[in-house]
Amino acid sequence: MFAALYAPSVPAAALAGVARQFTPRFEHLGAVILLDAGGLSRLFGTAQQLGEHLRDALSKLSPGDTIPRVAIASTQTAAALLALGSPGLTVVMPGKEAIVLAPLSVGVLDQFERLSGSGLRASGPPGLQASEPSGWHHPRHTHQASRGKRRAPDNRVLDILGKWGIRTLGALSALPGPDIHERLGDRGAYWQQLARGMDARPMVPWVDDVPFEVSLELEWPIEGLEPLSFVLARLLEPLAEQLERADRGAAAIYTSLRLTTRSVFTRTLQLPAPMRDPKTLRTLILLDLESHPPDAPIDVVRVFIEPTPARVLQWTLLARAQPAPEQVTTLVARLTALMGEGHVGSPGLVDTWKPGAFEMREFHVNHPIDNRPSPNSHPIKESSIAELTSALRRFRCPVPTRVAVHEGRPVRVQTDRQGFSSGAIVQAAGPWRTSGEWWEETGQLASGPAGQQGGWDRDEWDVAMPDGTIYRLVVEREVGQWCLEGVID
Question: At the fourth CATH level, which superfamily is domain 213-309?
Answer without folding.
Answer: DNA polymerase, Y-family, little finger domain (3.30.1490.100)
